[in-house]
Amino acid sequence: MRENKAQMLNLKLIFLFLLLFCLKYSNCSSPNNMQNSLRFHKKVDNLLPEISPIGQPQPLYPLLAPSPLSPFTITNNTAPKLSGFCTLDFDAIDTMMSTTAIDCFTVFAPYLANVVCCPQFEATLIVLIGQSSKKSNHLALNSTLAKHCISDFDQILMGQGANNSLQHICSIDASNLTEGSCPVIDVDGFEKMVNTSKLLANCGKIDLVNECCQETCQNTISEAAKEIASVSYELDAMGLRRPSDISAKVINDCKSIVLRWLASKLEPSGAKEVLRGLANCNLNKVCPLVLPNVGPVARGCKDVISNQTSCCSSMESYVSHLQKQSFLTNLQALNCAASLGKKLQKENITNNVYNLCHITLQDFSLQANGMQESGCLLPSLPSDATFDTSSGVSFLCDLNDHIPAPWPSLSHLAPSSCNKSVRIPALPAAASGQRGLYSHHDVMFLLVFVMTIVLVTIY
Predict the structure, then answer these.
(1) Which long-range contacts (CB under 8 A, 24 or more apart) does 431-434 make?
(2) Residue 317 needs a FRET pair 20 to 30 A away by CA distance; which of 99, 153, 200, 451 works?
(3) In the 3-class helix/strand/coil scheme, how is 128-185 assigned residue by residue?
(4) Residue 425 in 3-state DSSP?
(5) 377 DSSP 8-state letter
């Protein structure tokens, strides 16, 4: 059986290679046929810092999925085995549950975890409790009920094709449905303490581009969380509570209560947009990759001027480990490039080895079978994965050409979307000869791309 799977994998890889070769070097498919096979979207990424045009990048020809994709599509939905004890209103968010199942689809949930799957998974739980509070008047569950509900939640998602280890992948468990250490959980009590008009005005709809820098909604949520967190604290001599005395854990737990209340006042789609937007602010600030010890690179590059081959061999070996971890957004890749560069600079590597060894932003993200032209960086505002019966599951990629990774300056930290003076390499241009088939910045990769990654990893 294992040998048969391996043979099937080899056939698929050969098909992909021949198809890529055919697309790149010959006119093997008419524009009409190709347009029917691919779905592309144009979206300018406004969260990126100011860019500096440098030359004309080479075009990337996207991979086409072989037909049919029946083994990889969501066709065998199963009836979930529910506990019968959970009181949450799953019907109120059925569309959002389906989106979450696709975002966290079985094989590639771990690879889209920090960017797409887990933010959607957490947002869905928040909206579920928020919408259910319309009937229960409570913004949290007790620990026993929470265990039943998180189990039912998982069962419903798995029945629609989601990964069966989402709690582990996303570090979420039954405690995420409770109040934690927050002292206010009932809707009436919440609304008596919080300026709900201000909360709705600032967070009912957020500016997805500017919220991460201006933090209008985030500051309002923090204020509301401190208000309800102060319930358990005694009044001072002036008859006022002192939020500064409240622990960060209590305030953080109360932020969850604030978000659930907000989700109860919005339509699920609107609440989801706000929650995903706020999540993007956090995920784009850091590099989510585990950066191994840079010692081998430092040793290989200590005499970079006279032995470039040794240095670049060390760099290629190092980034090959990074490419097995997960998909990144373009801003995450910039942060990873800066973090790795800083580590190397601390090891007295002062030459721009990124430029010397042709290290690109794509090199920090997951690759398909080691083929760098198949790398994918997600936009800084990641979209949901999509599903249809003809092409299976697909998701949006950005920066598809070989954009050089910027070597960090000693005078500033990692590039930030809030620092518009930071100049990074130019975004890719559309491929010549493919006009209308895909846009300047984004290209949709099909599920076969991810399946290739996963199967190669297994074998």
Answers:
(1) 431/59, 431/60, 431/61, 432/59, 433/59, 434/59, 434/61
(2) 451
(3) HHHHHHHHHCECCCCHHHHHHHHHHHHHHHHHCCECCCHHHHHCCCHHHHCCCCCCCC
(4) strand
(5) E
Write out the two tokens for 71. Answer: 């083994």
Token pair of 117 as six digits: 């799957």
Which residues touch 282 (CB under 8 Å, ≥6 apart)?
Answer: none
CA pair distance 202, 199, nearest whole angstrom? 5
pLDDT at 303: 81
Whether residue 161 contacts residue 101, with contact meaning beta carbons closer than 8 Å, is answered with yes
pLDDT of residue 239: 57
With a cut of 70, which residues of the chain have pLDDT below it? 1-78, 232-245, 368-375, 399-401, 410-417, 419-459
**Enclosing H/E stretch for 196:** helix 196-203
Return the axis-axis angle of helices 196-203 and 248-265, rounded to nearest 10°.
Answer: 80
CB atoms within 10 A of CB 183: 16
Go through 125-146 and write b for each residue having 16 or more CB atoms within 10 A of its CB, e for each that does not: bbbbbbbbbeeeebbbbeeebb
Provide the 10 A C-beta neighbour count for residue 94: 13
Strands 51-52 and 424-425: parallel
What digits encode the pLDDT tens for the residues 175-233? 999 999 999 999 999 999 999 999 999 999 999 889 999 999 999 999 999 999 988 66
Rounded to an integer, what distance in angstroms lies between the CA atom of residue 391 and that of residue 40? 13
pLDDT, position 444: 40
Number of Cβ within 10 Å of residue 416's Cβ equals 19
8-28 confidence digits (pLDDT tens): 544 444 444 444 444 433 344
**Tokens 């959980």 found at:** 185
DSSP 49: P
Domain residue limits, the chain: 9-71+287-445, 90-283
**CB of 356 within 8 A of CB of 407?**
no
Q: What is the pLDDT of residue 31?
A: 34
Say how far apart CA 375 and CA 372 lie, in whole Å.
Answer: 5
Structure confidence by residue, pLDDT tens digits, 316-356? 999 999 988 999 998 999 999 999 999 999 999 989 999 99
pLDDT for 47 equals: 58
Q: How far apart are CA 158 and CA 149, in angstroms?
A: 14
**For residue 62, is the peptide bond before it cis, meaning its omega torsion is within 30 degrees of 0?**
no
> What is the distance between the alpha carbons of residues 22 and 359, in angstroms, rounded to a whole number?
27
What span, in angstroms and rounded, lies between the C-alpha atoms of 115 and 131? 25
